[in-house]
């Protein structure tokens, strides 16, 4: 479904990604782990067209999207729940979800809305509440829900557990597993919480200073001494 081939990305003269290649097959959960500044967020942003890859190619369902505008990429079936949630704080929960649905067929809106509320009942309870007044966990639920309203084939998630209480983190990862299993949705997950991410993922990649240094199944990477030493000490 997604094939990234030899991508390099720069911010001015600073190289953020160096010859990155990875892929995600239909129905997979693929996770990308690494420390702060490794280039994880830059990779997801490059997939969405901002910033642009300076070299290499990105194909989605066989179509080259490397140079496409972001709005066209989204309409092809790729949705992004970014780091920091980035919901619309002055809009209500309902209005945020409406924004997510702008690229989807309107005939699915009611069913999609109900599906999001099934995943996150708290959003339904607070449907008229403004996004900026929600807790961090509720905002993350809304960010994921908004992305799902676009009816994506590929869901990009950037640090969905960041700054959240352990119980909320557990809820978020349970929902991701449910989305994948029930909908067959492909997920590319960027996470610092390596234990949760690799436990969930079918396959994973380790990103260090803009380069892929390890790849394998989630189970293989969980058992890797290198991954254990760098990312899993004290994990729960």
CATH top level label: Alpha Beta
C-alpha termini separation: 32 Å
Named CATH topology: Rossmann fold
Rg:
17 Å
> Largest sheet, if any?
6 strands, mixed
Mean pLDDT: 93
Low-confidence stretches: none
Number of DSSP helical runs: 10
SSE-based structural type: alpha/beta
Q: How much helical structure, as a percent, in the residues?
A: 25-40%
Order of helices and strands: EEEHEEHEHHHHEHEHEEHH
Counting DSSP E segments of at least 2 residues, the number of strands comes to: 10
Strand order of the largest sheet: 6-7-8-3-9-10
State which percent range the strand residues make up: 25-35%
Describe this protein with a few key phrases.
236 residues; alpha/beta; Rossmann fold; 6-stranded mixed beta sheet; 4-stranded antiparallel beta sheet; 10 helices; 10 strands; 27% strand; globular
Write the layout of secondary structure elements.
Blueprint: E1 2-11, E2 14-24, E3 29-33, H1 40-47, E4 53-60, E5 63-64, H2 70-75, E6 78-81, H3 93-100, H4 109-119, H5 121-125, H6 136-148, E7 154-158, H7 166-183, E8 186-191, H8 194-200, E9 203-208, E10 211-217, H9 218-222, H10 225-232
Helix pairs in contact: 3-6
């Amino acid at each position: 479904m997604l094939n990234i081939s030899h991508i390099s990305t720069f911010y001015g003269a600073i190289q953020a990604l160096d010859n990155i290649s990875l892929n995600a097959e239909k129905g997979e959960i693929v996770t990308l782990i690494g420390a702060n500044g490794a280039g994880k967020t830059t990779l997801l942003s490059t997939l969405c067209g901002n910033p642009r890859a300076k070299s290499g190619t990105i194909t989605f369902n066989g179509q080259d999207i490397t140079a496409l505008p972001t709005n066209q990429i989204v309409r092809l079936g790729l949705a992004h729940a970014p780091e920091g949630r980035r919901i619309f704080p002055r809009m209500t929960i309902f209005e945020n979800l409406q924004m997510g649905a702008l690229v989807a067929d309107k005939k699915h809106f009611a069913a999609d809305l109900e599906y999001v509320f099934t995943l996150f009942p708290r959003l339904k309870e607070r449907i008229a509440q403004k996004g900026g007044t929600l807790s961090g966990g509720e905002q993350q639920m809304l960010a994921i829900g908004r992305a799902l309203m676009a009816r994506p084939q590929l869901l990009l998630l950037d640090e969905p557990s960041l700054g959240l209480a352990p119980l909320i983190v557990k809820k978020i990862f349970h929902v991701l597993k449910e989305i994948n299993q029930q909908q067959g949705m492909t997920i590319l997950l960027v996470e610092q919480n390596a234990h949760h991410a690799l436990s969930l993922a079918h396959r994973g990649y380790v990103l260090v200073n803009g380069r892929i240094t390890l790849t394998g199944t989630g189970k293989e990477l969980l058992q890797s001494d290198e991954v254990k030493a760098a990312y899993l000490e004290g994990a729960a």
